[in-house]
Amino acid sequence: MKAEFWKERWETDQLGFHQTETNAHLKQFWAELEATAGATVFVPLCGKSLDMRWLRSIGHPVIGVEISPIAVCDFFKAAGIEAKTSASDGGLVRSSGGGYDLYCGDFFALEAHHLADVRAVYDRASLIALPPKMRERYAKHLAKALPATVSILLIALEYDPSRMQGPPHCVPASEIEALFGAAFEVERLWSSGPQEASEYFRARGLDASTTTVWRIERGTTHRWT
Ligand SMILES: C[S@@+](CC[C@H](N)C(=O)[O-])C[C@H]1O[C@@H](n2cnc3c(N)ncnc32)[C@H](O)[C@@H]1O
Asked: Measured from the CA of 68, which atom of ligand 1 is nearest?
């Protein structure tokens, strides 16, 4: 999936993935990570997600990365924050303000020093936005760039891939385990079981899908001081 594909979606306002309320699974399962209030949270492929505002509201500094400058600009505008912008390495542009640091640029350009303070990660519609080869690269890059002690809350989607072409892509449990199992402990926290697809997906040919929620972690987790 090329950067241009996503940039065009933002330019033409094709944002079916954007939620106008905080994600219910984030609210329900965030406590499972046992992240302390001051722990920095990384939100990869963040869009202009309101979930970042919820994470901030419970005390987390938030680092995001997003390829579209429109998304970053819209996020700060909606939050009523005037961000300060500076150039970072890897061609990334950092916009900071209100406890948010959003890097505009390619996720794969982020290095360990950008994420050194991160203790938790929230992935909603990020892994599943990517095609198979890129998902492998994404998981490897997270394993390399994240600190030794970290917990990830990941929301994934399963469906009959013959019915709909992603994104969002179908990422079954076996793939999540294969992608992250070598570097992390992987635990499925919840599965919705097959549910009638939303109107957005029904219009694309899908009748049912299953949402899964995962805790993926490594290091001495659960107790951060
Ligand atoms: C499906 S959207 C999900 C956005 C957000 N996580 C949410 O829940 O609303 C995927 C986002 O990833 C961004 N994106 C895609 N490839 C990227 C990359 N290589 N680096 C940074 N952002 C990327 C897109 O612009 C898009 O905003």
From this structure: 25
